[in-house]
Design a protein that fits this description.
Distance between the termini: 80 Å
Number of strands: 0
Number of domains: 1
Structural class: mainly alpha
Largest sheet: none
Order of helices and strands: HH
Number of helices: 2
Helix content: over 70%
Shape: rod-shaped
Radius of gyration: 28 Å
Strand content: under 5%
Protein backbone atom coordinates (compact mmCIF):
# COMPACT_ATOMS: atom_id res chain seq x y z
CA UNK A 1 0.00 0.00 0.00
CA UNK A 2 2.86 2.37 0.74
CA UNK A 3 4.23 1.91 -2.78
CA UNK A 4 0.89 2.91 -4.27
CA UNK A 5 0.60 5.99 -2.05
CA UNK A 6 4.10 7.14 -2.97
CA UNK A 7 3.44 6.44 -6.65
CA UNK A 8 0.27 8.52 -6.57
CA UNK A 9 2.16 11.41 -5.03
CA UNK A 10 4.98 11.19 -7.57
CA UNK A 11 2.54 10.76 -10.50
CA UNK A 12 4.09 7.41 -11.41
CA UNK A 13 1.20 5.08 -10.52
CA UNK A 14 1.04 3.17 -13.81
CA UNK A 15 4.68 2.07 -13.69
CA UNK A 16 4.43 1.03 -10.05
CA UNK A 17 1.26 -1.00 -10.63
CA UNK A 18 2.89 -2.75 -13.59
CA UNK A 19 5.92 -3.48 -11.42
CA UNK A 20 3.72 -4.92 -8.64
CA UNK A 21 1.78 -7.04 -11.16
CA UNK A 22 5.01 -8.40 -12.66
CA UNK A 23 6.27 -9.30 -9.21
CA UNK A 24 3.05 -11.14 -8.40
CA UNK A 25 3.20 -12.97 -11.74
CA UNK A 26 6.76 -14.13 -11.04
CA UNK A 27 5.79 -15.26 -7.53
CA UNK A 28 2.79 -17.25 -8.77
CA UNK A 29 4.81 -18.81 -11.59
CA UNK A 30 7.49 -19.87 -9.12
CA UNK A 31 4.93 -21.39 -6.73
CA UNK A 32 3.22 -23.22 -9.59
CA UNK A 33 6.55 -24.62 -10.77
CA UNK A 34 7.34 -25.89 -7.27
CA UNK A 35 3.89 -27.46 -6.95
CA UNK A 36 4.26 -29.26 -10.29
CA UNK A 37 7.68 -30.55 -9.25
CA UNK A 38 6.20 -31.97 -6.06
CA UNK A 39 3.05 -33.47 -7.59
CA UNK A 40 4.73 -35.12 -10.59
CA UNK A 41 6.51 -37.93 -8.66
CA UNK A 42 3.35 -38.69 -6.71
CA UNK A 43 1.37 -39.05 -9.93
CA UNK A 44 4.04 -41.30 -11.44
CA UNK A 45 4.00 -43.57 -8.40
CA UNK A 46 0.21 -43.71 -8.45
CA UNK A 47 0.13 -44.60 -12.14
CA UNK A 48 2.82 -47.25 -11.62
CA UNK A 49 0.84 -48.79 -8.77
CA UNK A 50 -2.33 -48.93 -10.85
CA UNK A 51 -0.49 -50.53 -13.78
CA UNK A 52 1.15 -53.05 -11.45
CA UNK A 53 -2.24 -53.94 -9.95
CA UNK A 54 -3.72 -54.46 -13.44
CA UNK A 55 -0.79 -56.65 -14.51
CA UNK A 56 -1.07 -58.80 -11.39
CA UNK A 57 -4.83 -59.10 -11.87
CA UNK A 58 -4.31 -60.27 -15.47
CA UNK A 59 -1.36 -62.61 -14.91
CA UNK A 60 -2.31 -64.23 -11.61
CA UNK A 61 -5.04 -66.44 -13.13
CA UNK A 62 -2.62 -67.56 -15.85
CA UNK A 63 0.00 -68.58 -13.27
CA UNK A 64 -2.60 -70.36 -11.14
CA UNK A 65 -3.89 -72.27 -14.16
CA UNK A 66 -0.39 -73.31 -15.20
CA UNK A 67 0.36 -74.47 -11.63
CA UNK A 68 -2.75 -76.67 -11.52
CA UNK A 69 -2.09 -78.14 -14.99
CA UNK A 70 1.63 -78.75 -14.55
Amino acid sequence: MAMITVAEESNNLDAVLVNIADGLDRKIARQLDIMVRLVEPVLLLTMGTVILFILVALLLPVFEMSATVG
